């Protein structure tokens, strides 16, 4: 079984002067994987910085971006790990990606059939690192602003997503009104996709403290109950 853990970060600035437990921020680690060039950097940048990046270069190893969001009054840090798609830039880092992962986002490029065909290999790589169906996973078809050049049919993608028990989201990290856009494409999905994952993670069963913190200011790790809910999303495919 995958090691599904949730980290809590304690605010050290508030710990010394008060006997009350310090405020804490749950951290959800979400890894974003898929072939090189499918738009992982652009998707994560869009969610964390709110815009499409001016220019990107191939990711080397891993980048991570964070954004704090509030759900039902609780502050949650969404940590997106943007992994390198190119094998030569992945080798040394792979072990680090897969530790303490709360959710996986698989990305393909709707204009690149090969990136869709690579998905089983990415799923297998996750499985080999103990990230199977018990970990929330979603499938994202990116670059739907280039729909006229699409090579991956939505129905085929949906079938694949169903087979692997994942919700499918087709979206664009780029503006829906970009030059190449002929059909309205809901880029707000980028926001909604990651928020959906965060809601899903937050709504999972309460956490049980498994490792006591010796000092406030440390990051402690909480482990989930063994019998937690598995894989039910209650949300379907979002298409533009
Ligand atoms: N039209 C369009 N182009 C996009 C979109 N998302 C990304 N791109 C472009 O696709 C190219 C690759 O994007 P990246 O985000 O760097 O791809 P990546 O998956 O992070 O690539 P690696 O770091 O090599 O794994 C860049 O030229 C982006 O501008 C999109 O939604 N629409």
Structural features, described:
By secondary structure, the chain is an alpha/beta fold. It has one domain: P-loop containing nucleotide triphosphate hydrolases (Rossmann fold), CATH 3.40.50. 25% of the residues lie in helices and 25% in strands. It is built from 7 helices and 9 strands. Strands 1, 2, 3, 4, 5, 6, 7, 8 and 9 form a 9-stranded mixed β-sheet that branches. The longest helix is centred in the last third of the chain and has 16 residues, at 188-203. The chain is globular and about 60 Å long. Residues 36-42, 56, 58-59, 84-86, 142-143, 145-146, 172-174, 180 line the site of guanosine-5'-triphosphate (GTP). Guanosine-5'-triphosphate binds next to helix 1. It is an enzyme of class 3 (hydrolase). It comes from Danionella cerebrum. One of its GO terms (biological process) is Rab protein signal transduction. Its cofactor is Mg(2+). Its EC number is 3.6.5.2.
Q: Averaging pLDDT over every residue, what do you get?
A: 77
What count of structural domains? 1
Question: Any guess at the CATH architecture?
Answer: 3-Layer(aba) Sandwich
Computed over alpha carbons, the radius of gyration is: 18 Å
* Secondary-structure class: alpha/beta
Q: Separation of termini? A: 35 Å
